Amino acid sequence: MTLGEVLEFEAQGHLFDESTPKKADAREVLNYRAALREAAGLMSWLPLSQRLIKATHRVLMDGVRGRHKDPGEYRRIPNWIGPEGCTIGQARFVPPGADKIEPAMSAWEAYIHTDAPDRLVQLAIVHAEFEAIHPFLDGNGRIGRLIIPLFLCAHGLLSRPNFYLSEYLEANRDEYYHRLLAVSRDGDWSGWVAFFLRGIIAQAEGNTRKAQAILALHQDKRDWVVEITHSQYAVRALDWIFQRPIFQTPDFITSAQIPPPTARKIIRDLRDNGLLRELVPAAGRAPATFVFPQLLNIAEGREAF
């Protein structure tokens, strides 16, 4: 599931449509974003804790696959990890029994708030231990990835929880699972921590390159959009499109705080001069869906549009 596919799904407004696996995937990604925002808001008055994780899990699972598997509550039955349909005896890994989750998570929460000589090494341990406990019936992987930026923010390594390791973990999926399993099976903490830290470095470098390219693009387009549109609302429109690089015209008109006739003219000007492109043409009463290709190509890290 690419960023562009998720944003297109969101722009078309059918947020509860799970009629295809890809649409269901897009809904899960949007829930991930909503859960991260929920957690960030809660962290203004709550520490990173079991209470916060449960509340975040409730938002994460709302209305998506697994919605009936006790969102926000620890599992009360066994769980195991392995090929789809495997028995517990065939599982690659069996997490602790349900009766051990509460004490395990209490110890996990206490460790988050202990002093450590290296916070990133501590984070590697925090992530691995959460995945080993596997406290929920579903959504443990997504919550485990959410914990990474939340931990970094909680300990002052980030000002906002905007750091996503998912790209690195997906690109190195087999090694990720191998390293986690090696911790539980062989006690190979060194191998796991080294893998995790390489991921933090690689993702941070990639994020920095993308952020610098996005800032340069915005700077380049600020004067250009004023020249093209001759509008006092040009920069406001540009800022809105940077936040919503796939959208439909009615959304722009209703939320950009620009007079509707001016908003429509700006969209036409940006389309006619190549900043925007029609991704999905208008059909009947359905408006066209526009995309900002330059921005999304940077975000995707490839020529996606």
In short:
This protein is mostly helical. The chain has helices spanning about 5-10, 20-40, 50-60, 100-110, 120-135, 140-155, 165-170, 175-185, 190-230, 235-245, 250-255, 260-270, 295-300; strands spanning about 245-250, 275-280, 290.
Task: Give a verbal description of the structure.
With 305 residues, this protein is mainly alpha-helical. It has 2 domains: 3-163, Fic-like fold (Orthogonal Bundle), CATH 1.10.3290; 212-300, Arc Repressor Mutant, subunit A (Orthogonal Bundle), CATH 1.10.10.10. The protein has helices at residues 3-11, 21-42, 50-60, 101-112, 119-133, 140-154, 166-171, 173-186, 189-229, 234-243, 249-255, 260-272, 293-300, and strands spanning 246-248, 277-280, 289-291. A 3-stranded antiparallel sheet has the order 1-3-2. A hairpin with an 8-residue loop joins β2 and β3 (289-291). α1 crosses α2, α4 (101-112) runs antiparallel to α5 (119-133) and α11 (249-255) crosses α12 (260-272). The radius of gyration is 22 Å and the shape is elongated. The chain starts with a helix and ends in a 5-residue tail after the last helix. The relative contact order is 0.10. The model has no long low-confidence stretch (mean pLDDT 94). Keywords: ATP-binding, Nucleotide-binding. GO terms for molecular function: ATP binding.
